[in-house]
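Hi U.,

Before I forget, here's the chain from the pilot set. I'm dumping it here mostly so it's searchable later in email.
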Amino acid sequence: MPCLIALIALLSPRLALFFILLFSNMIDRAFDSWFLPVLGFFLLPWTTLAYVVMWDIGTREVSGFEWFIVGLAFVMDLGSYFGGKRARD
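Structure:
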């Protein structure tokens, strides 16, 4: 199942988050409320997906190198917003 989600994540991080929500409770374990995952789903999907995965594969907290992965996902999210603007100009 994790390999399938990884392949889906390459196509669409929102679709991967949706499948994680349907078939596991990783999102519930990573976040205390429903607000941040919903906000992350719409605004920062790569960052939300990276945080959920790093939370689940680690020691149930994000620390050390895991923050680097989450930061890299954040840069990917920002790149998708600002890269599209540059292509339109």
